[in-house]
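Revision sheet: structure tokens.
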Amino acid sequence: MADIYKLFSSKLKERREALKMTQKQLAEALGYSEKNISKWENGAAIAPSVVLPRLASILKTDVNTLLLDDSDYFFLGIDGGGTKTEFALCDKSGKILSNIILEGANPVDIGFARARDILVKGISSVIGDKPTSSVYAFAGIAGGITGQNKEKIHDLLASFGFADFNNGSDAENAVASTLSNVDGTVVIMGTGTVAFTKTNNQLIRHGGWGYLFEEGGSGYAIGRDAIMHTLSIEESKSKDMLSIAITRALGNTGLASIADLYDGGKRKIASLAPIVFECYDNGDDVSRRILDKNMRAIAKLIETSISENNKNIVLTGGLVTRADVIMPMIRAHLKNPSTYNLNVAKERQIFGALKLAKKLKGETTC
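Predicted:
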């Protein structure tokens, strides 16, 4: 019991002094005597449980912070893309304690109410019984800084009572996981595409204007091209490897699935991209041409992104799981490819989110 007395006394004094309050001022605000405050800070007694919420409020903190040992703390990273959202919790040594992947939480695509439900479920799942007051969190969400979404997500995170937190775009996770200590360009190839060039800690964005305006190189663009091919083949009353695979995945013909595809939106269309890679693996030339066309768009994005003095390029996102296919195609469309230092990210973007969570406490990366 003496340990909690000592812990409470040090926390109480620390918060009081941080607010530049005297023991007398705190006592008057609480309605207790200065003698009581002195006893609590000396470790001779602890405030009654009924008083703790009021005391915490006056000290602009919470009861957990006053009573719990914060030598144990944790970091929560959230990486929300258009197709999936990953949550991970690590301890102060960097060990991943829990991890979960849920559906995409882009509020622009699915609405804020649905995105909120996904975030609440994922956060609650990975934190478990850990006190939220011992958790530092960063949430990088696709669409998370569009309109009022940044403020809405901020308010949602605030409701958990984290030790500290911040939120932004999933692009911040990508940059942190790939270019945390170096200059260069990161190209994100997920449901959509975007590139960021980092020079002297300054970021310049290239592309990323959304699926209505992108030239290609994303899961959505590859899935869209596969659907367009399937529709064209069906209109000519013929079949080929890719069209058969797409109709099998849709559970119907392309023509009969158009309404469902519109309802499913870009996430549904992007989910068909792996089928194009599968058909490519089986020697399908149509799939090869679709992939090659899209990697030409990535090469163009790279060439408009890089600077003369820094040609360090890192690819990240869901499509880089097939680096064996896309890297040679991208190189083939680059002018003077030997002048580029082109690599695939070694870490998933969730580790970038964890790095940004650790940064809130001024610590090194996970």
